[in-house]
Amino acid sequence: MTRILITGRSGMLGREVEGAARTQGHEVHGLDRTGPDPCDITDAGAVHRRVAAVSPALIIHTAAWTAVDACETDPERADAVNGGGTAHVARAAEAVGAHLVHVSTDYVFDGTKGAPYEEDDEPRPRSAYGRSKLLGEQAVGPSHAVVRTSWLYGPVAPSIVATILRQLGGSAPLRFVDDQIGNPTSATDLAGALLDLGLGGASGTWHVTNRGSASWWQLAREVARAAGEDPDRIHPIATADLDPPRAAIRPADSRLADDRWTRSGRAPLPDFRTTLERTVASLQATGATAPR
To answer: Strand 181-182 relative to strand 214-215: parallel, antiparallel, unpaired?
Structure first.
């Protein structure tokens, strides 16, 4: 049994990490900015006190401000949370001798490579969100792990899949962007991978996503298909034609290569469509689809 501290415990990914850790029999503690015992990761003193009180062997840092467009309009807050907050967690981990796994993003890349990004490709973020997450990566020491992932979806709302299901509950045609490509990734599958890396003491940068790539339009069609709806209700649109336009620039092709993961002897995560079917079924069972 390992004592594990999860930051952002109440978030979509944090909940999945906690569930997986408890299933494996580990002792789990949480750090959240809300709830009965809140702790804001931008408060260095509070972070150090909480980490020292728990004295975990492993910290999985899922807490982040992920509202990409909101980050663009408030880059100082983005840097404070995603950059400074991660630095506080990293220093607190060092102080108690805990191993740290920090979750980062494909948005640290500019999307112009034209092929999946490898771990040693140079980050060139185009958004305040991406820049703030890169600051967080740079705050993590070399003995710890940075795990970049992309396009997370989960079995509970809110998530992109739940949003699509709700929209499918109406009668209007739906439009999704078809000129942004990435690797849709299950938070459930990623949670298991984070524990694997953390408990194994992995260090350095890792790319971990489900297999398979798609545009947002293609992902929405897959959700419709899994839900028993007509995928042809969903129509493609260019990013430039969004109304209103997005505040932040998204990478056009942010696919991540998982070669390091597979070279380490680990099995690739399943194709995203496999997990997506289970996710859709779970969300439908909990009433995520709005009535028509």
So the answer is: antiparallel
